[in-house]
Amino acid sequence: MNGVGHSDNGEDGQSSDEGDVFLDEDDVIQEILVDEEELPERIDEVDLDVEYEEADDSFYVFEGHKDEVYAVACSPIDTSLVASGGKDDKGFLWVVGSAGALLELQGHGDTVSSVAFSYDGKFLASGSYDGVVQVWDTSLLSLKCRFESSGQGIEWLKWHPKGHLILAGSEDCSVWLWNVDKSILLNTFYGHASSVTCGDFTPDGKIICTGSDDASLWIWNPRTGESIHTVRGHPYHTDGLTCLSITSDSAIAITGSKDGSVHMVNLATGRVISSLASHADSVESVGISPSSSWAATGSLDTKLIIWDLQRSSLRCICEHEDGVTCLLWLGTTRFVASGSVDGKVRLWDSLSGACVRIFGGHVDVIQALAVSADLRSLVSVSTDCTSRVFDISSLR
């Protein structure tokens, strides 16, 4: 009202010493009738249904998949070549920055759960829940060979570190080893009592390690198919294994489990030599630094933990806002990348435990991570049906 009714001398409208101002009938110039229905509605609180777009930090997005994307791999030779696989029963070979896919990995009849390049980048393998592994020639962009297991789902696949051999774990408790050059089956490994959830060759290629939902770790001779050691029972995991990683000297396997525990196993003796206890929920990923005796574990308890393996001690805890689903050491640098249920990709300094970068763009769970051979690009895939590429060249 801008002071209407106020009198400088304290009369005609001044009520008392309290300074309150009132209007007398003589002060009214005009009375305006207002229809309450024409007044704007009062906004008492923020509309929580309004969606706000977060910043997208990726410089390239691959949108070839029409459903959730579960697997990703970067070529060890071509820094722009990436493979991905998903719930839409499809895998793709694509080039960062390209308008579309370079090659569609056709022929699978179920979810493509795993993709991996051979050590020399010559071949790309795709494994599916249809029980089939297909191998593609990356230069000819054609199918090299097709391997069929028992028909049960392929959970994961790994290439031999020095040859064209493929190792794959199945839902039917079996492990399969194929020779790609000769397109033949070399061995099938039986012993687990439940789905084989993780596995790998040792870095020297001489031993195979596999972990299962039956809470056991098996150490195999790849030539004979015979078990060297079986690790289970106290003081080992009490629930299914989810992940494993092997030290660069091929001496120790580190395994994580649904029960939240992490154990170190001597592969020569088959004995548990240490237990890394700190997680309170399922350990989803484990990785060992190529340049030091450090390891990282990620759990649904929202923690990424950096460990000193020589001392079997905790170095630092990297807290997330939601569960950690995957992690990846970035080459020989001190940095570790993590993917989370909250859709964020984070970069951590393993020396200090500090989060040095958070990448936004995904709107759902991060399922897997891969890094380009030149360590300039980080690729993530998500249940939001996209693959995103982030620039990490500043970390070098």
Describe the structure.
With 396 residues, the chain is mainly β. The chain has one domain (60-391): Methylamine Dehydrogenase, Chain H (7 Propeller). The chain contains no helices and 32 strands. It has strands at 60-62, 69-74, 81-86, 91-95, 101-104, 112-117, 123-128, 132-137, 142-148, 154-159, 165-170, 175-179, 184-189, 196-201, 208-212, 217-220, 227-231, 241-246, 252-257, 262-266, 271-275, 283-288, 294-299, 303-308, 313-319, 324-329, 335-340, 345-349, 355-359, 366-371, 377-382, 387-391. The strands form eight sheets. The protein has a four-stranded antiparallel β-sheet with strand order 1-32-31-30, with no helix packed on it. The protein starts with 59 loop residues before the first strand and ends in a 5-residue tail after the last strand. Mean pLDDT is 91; it is low at 1-19. One of its GO terms (cellular component) is cytoplasm. InterPro entries: WD40/YVTN_repeat-like_dom_sf, WD40_PAC1, WD40_repeat_CS, WD40_repeat_dom_sf, WD40_rpt, WD_repeat_multifunction. It is found in: Cytoplasm. Its main location: cytoplasm.
Could you provide a short overview of the structure?
Helices cover 0% and strands 45% of the residues. The chain contains no helices and 32 strands.
